[in-house]
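REVIEWER CHECKLIST
Item 1: Sequence provided? yes
Item 2: Single chain? yes
Item 3: Sequence as submitted:
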Amino acid sequence: MFLRGAMAREEHDEFSDIDIYCVVNEENVEAFLPNRSQHIETYKKAIFNDDIYIIAPQLLVVYEDMIHIDLFTVTPSKISDKDAIKILLDPNGIHS
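Item 4: Structure as written out by the authors:
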């Protein structure tokens, strides 16, 4: 998992959304996608949740405290280097 956007660039403020990317192996994408809402609601129940596709499968989620998360699902081959990345979780040490 990694951050992108204003938070990864350390340009965020209290109104910034949170762009979280989950890297999923190609063979696991179809199994992962239906469970995204359950994963994202481990923080708390969302008041808005929309499944869209702009650059990748994406959940747009808003909570009652107005925190806005964009949860993208990407495969290793679809990670671009067009913006800063801040690694959040790398249990297999891929980016060590």
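Item 5: Key structural point noted by reviewer: The first strand starts at residue 2 and ends at 4.
Item 6: Recommendation: ____
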